[in-house]
Amino acid sequence: MRYYLIIAIQGYCLYHIYKNRKPYYWYFVVFFVPVLGPIIYFLINIYNKRDAEKIQSELTSIIYPTKKIRDLEKKLEFSDTYSNRIELADAYVENGDMPNAIVNYKHTLSDIDQNDLYARQQLILCYFQLKDYVGVVEHAEKIRNKSKFRGSKQQFCYGLALKELGKVEAAEIQLKQIDRPYSNYNERLELAKFYLENNRNFEGVELLKEISSESQHMTKPNRRVYRSTINEVERLLKSM
User: Fold this and answer.
1) What letters, b where the CB count within 10 A reaches 16 and e where it falls short, cover 84-103?
2) What is the span of the domain harbouring residue 222?
């Protein structure tokens, strides 16, 4: 049990370093000094009394990933509210259980007093994970006129779903919405591939060149985050 606790703390610290863009040397401290390193980082960068309960809960979720779900299921049995069901659905997503997440998100849609935007946003992502492109399109078309939909990950999934369903022109309209300079690198790579797959070589190559040029101005942390994307861009350019 002690071994798993150490691994959990170490993993949490590494995630915290990445998420909060802490100095790079902390990776070495946490990773190469297995017990003392995470403790030092934890005490200096994370721990305070106000956050103690939250951190304990997150560590428990890492060690026992189904415990959070069981607790939320009991909470829902006691009080079947919109917020409790959304919380349970979110927990299923965190645990990779998309079918059960979908069941609970869809259940909230029957509550006409609640805004359905969040549930449908999540349903789009869940259906996309399951490669159920009909489901993606169904819920995307319910919210595609919302301001929060434009330029979102959900719109990108909608575009790819339309492509998979053979609706190429409609897909392009959606996918082009995420073509924004110095951002959305993964999505823009997919858009470039979309152009190439549909014999639009000029547009595809130009977009790849834009991404390649922008990558030269990335910060080191961003270059690490998008390393595989940049490598794929350069590979495609060399193959042209």
Assistant:
1) bbbebbbbbbeeebbebbbe
2) 183-240
